Every structure is written in C-alpha cells, then in structure tokens.
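Lab notebook: predicted structure, single chain.

Context: the supervisor wants predicted structures on file for every construct in the current expression panel, including those that have not yet been purified. This is the next one on the list. No modifications to the sequence; it matches the entry in the shared construct table.
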Amino acid sequence: MPEPSKISGIKITLAVIPALLIVSICVALYLGANADQEEAKPLEGDITVPEMSDYLLKLNNLIGEREIGTEAGQKAFRRLNAMTAGTLGSENLGYEIFRNQIDSVNGLLWSTIWIKAGDRESREPVVLAIPQASRGSGPAFGFGFAEYLTSHQTEVGVRVVFYPPLFEGDLDDWIWERCGEEGESMKGFLMVTGDEEPNRSPRFLVPASLKGKIDALSNSKIWDEEAKIEIGDHGVLEVRLGDDSLFSREEHSQRLIRMMPVIKELVERLNE
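Prediction complete. Output recorded below exactly as produced.
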C-alpha cells in the first residue's frame, strides 16, 4: 500500500501540472502576440557581398527578363514581385509591405510595391524609385539598401518603391500618386537603376536645379571617385549603377555596396 506522503506528492503533482500547462500556454500566447506586433519592425543587419551576389544571380539568371507584352515576361514580373515581398517582408528583413494595383494592361493588374524605411512616420518622405524592368542592379540595390538602412540609421523618411514600366507623364508624380498618402508631400525624388549602356562607372544624371546638392555630395569623404556627374535637362535625378554584364557578380556586388553610403547621404541632402 502506498505511503500517505507519496499519495500526497502524486496529488500535488497532478494538481500542479494543469496549472503549469496553463501558464505555459499564456506565456506562448503573450510571446506570439508580441511577435505579431513586432513583425513590421525591420531587423537590424548589414548587407553582405554573398547576399548581393545571390540577388543578382536570381534577378539576372533565374527570374527572367521582365516584359509587359509576353507571357514569359509577365511571369517574370510576378516572380520579381514575389521576391520583393519575400525579401523585404516579415519573414526576412521585417518591413511592412505596401502594394498598389491600380494599373491594368493586357487584362492584368500590375503592382507597385514599396516599404517605409528610416523615419516611417515622416509626412515628407524622400522617394527612392526602382524600375522593376531594369537589369538586376536596380532591384538588387533596392533590396540591399533596405537592409543597409536597418543598421545605418537615418532620420529621413525613405520610401523605397519598385514600380512597373507603365508610367505616363512625369515619373515622380506618377509614382507619388501610387505610394503617397493623404496629408503627405514628397520631399525629394531619386531613381536608381542599372545602366543599359556599356558603362563601368556609376552615373548621376542631375537636373540643373539640384546641381548644388550633387556638388556638395561629390566633395564629401564617401564620394566614389569613379562616379560621373552629368548636369542637364533631366526630368528626375537618376543614378545609373553601371552595366552589371561587365563585371563578375562578386565584383559588381562590392561596387553596389560601396554606393550605399553615397545614396544614403544623397537622400539626406534631398531632405534638406
């Protein structure tokens, strides 16, 4: 016959186990709720050459050429959109993904996708626009720059926008109609893309009205000495990152990463 003390111990254990289970469930629910609340907060990290090389490999060799008029090109756009949301969203970098689908061509809706970086509450963001149809340099830079800003903080509101080749009229106004919110105004605009011309050096195509900001940037310590500045009758400020077909993926990745502090400072100057 079991001793009374053993019976008491068993009874206590049986009574405690359900209580422990309830506590465990409550803790799990609490942690899960907090995880859900924190999903939209970017995870701090820094872009690496292997990561950038992987972006370029997927964009230039696996996703396919993005074309509105062909079925294969349309599938490539869908794959790029999935990569954009997957790379920047809650499962990876942790940004909240915004999407607009007001554009319809060939019976299909086309997505403009963006994130809010830096000061996400800013009512006067600077827009950094990435054409989805460009070579891999543009989208790859956008992914890497979003990660770069998680560990190199800026007080400027930065809206990184990936847009389809459907704009009409002024590009900056067209994009702002899709990513701007009520009560906001666009403080500055910058387009970043690859270069279709056989050009090894980054090129800054600068409207005359922004010459002063580029002159100041070119005199800073972080300026890329290989970069070329072309002041002229350009509709928007555009940075062309060089023809990625002229480099190995690793070399081009290194060049793109070196441009990130330059673009960050340029964004901050556009906010002045």
